[in-house]
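User: Predict the structure for this protein chain, please.
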Amino acid sequence: MMTNNLFTEIFTNPATIPLADIPTLDYPEFSAFIDLLMGEEGTHCLTYFVLPQPEKYKFICCMAADENHAIVLISHEHPREPLPSLPSLSANHFQFHLFEREIHENFGIEFPGHPWMKPIRYSFNRANLSSVMNNYPFYSIEGEALHEVGVGPIHAGIIEPGYFRFICHGEHVHHLEIHLGYQHRGVEQLFLAKPQLLQQSVLAETIAGDTAVGHSLAFAGLVESLAEIDMPASLHRERIIALELERIAIHIGDTAAICTDIAYQFGQVVCEALRTIVINTTQLWCGNRFGKGMVRPGGTNYPLTATVISAILENLRDVEERYSQITERIFSLPSVLGRFEGVGKVTTMQASLAGAVGMAARSSGMYRDIRWSHPFAAYIDQPYEPVMIPHGDVWSRVMLRKMEVDRSVAVIRKMVELVNEHDNISSPDYNLNFKPASLAISLAEGWRGEICHAAITDETGKIILYKVKDPSFHNWMALALAVRYQEISDFPLCNKSFNLSYCGNDL
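Assistant: Here is the predicted structure, written as structure tokens:
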């Protein structure tokens, strides 16, 4: 850790530091420093939130400096009365727009100059209770030749609720606005209301059901850091094996779903069968196809055995071979390529401005992957080089899945080589004592991208604030950009090529 008068810089992930070690700047100085950071290649905002205190609001910003493999922490403070009014960061750095919208929604704090000040979640304790779904201020464009199309919030498929409003000229989309917040569950408040670690562990794996391992790993890393305990290398390897199995399963399942959207049934049924093999392998290991119960703080209930290792390797051989065969067909059929190539394009500049993470970033030419930039668990000792494609269209997002499946299979084989069945891995520990008056942050690269969990403890070590950021929080804007000037009939394909999480946004 390195601290000076402007910022604190940490080089480990996860990490815990005393809250007092985060420098507090005047807002003009804070804003100028953000300008400076955002001028550096690869730097982006991990999380930006408010810690309410009796007489003041403490704003804490965590920035990822990817090229330096560092997390930069800075803060500013303001009295609660009168209510702060702060020039918007989003006016110059659009990726802050959601963070400022969330702060405004929760506390009523104003950000003059913000281009898009609207609610994002409708939490039960929001500052303005008169701001409800039915009076959401949708963007509009005047013109006799334009028409609007509304889709949702209840969809024909069995998916989560979200509303999409298109402004179209004929079949072409001029603008898409995505309205979420229909299922606010109070996840962050539940982390405070349910103080037992087992309760919190179960909560973490339900933040986004298809990312149970990714969010559980971020949570476990955070609380282990807060408790200042080190886990054995063998446990870190097992967690990464579970994480990459999750990535493989979802990528293959998404390939099936994308084939469904273009009516390529053969690709759909083959990939669905292969996904089943992978999730059944996870079930053999921990008893749950989605990896629930797999990752727990302080240890594991499911250490890898020779039987499970053998099943993982055998099933991966089968899946890798058959997935390679079907994707070779997918990427060589003119009828498929005609629906993939050039459709739903997001440029590198657009992805960067939106603060895209994970697959949405890497398929648009951005070198952004927490496994590389801020390695965690076994990636600390086994360097990872991300896969990147520059084109930003549906083809890129499907091809990236195929390439990442290959890479994940290789990672698992490497990790399995290093696993020793006789390593002594303890059972989970749900009685950890946390470092007082501290901030902890934990990052993981889930299959969608960058997951960020942060927590603050009081003077007794009790967690008084818990913040979660799912990668979808950044990437919904990338989807909105992808469908501009596309035919509206391409929306289902574009949507599935991102496969973002509604509940990951509606915390």
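The two ends are 31 Å apart (CA to CA).
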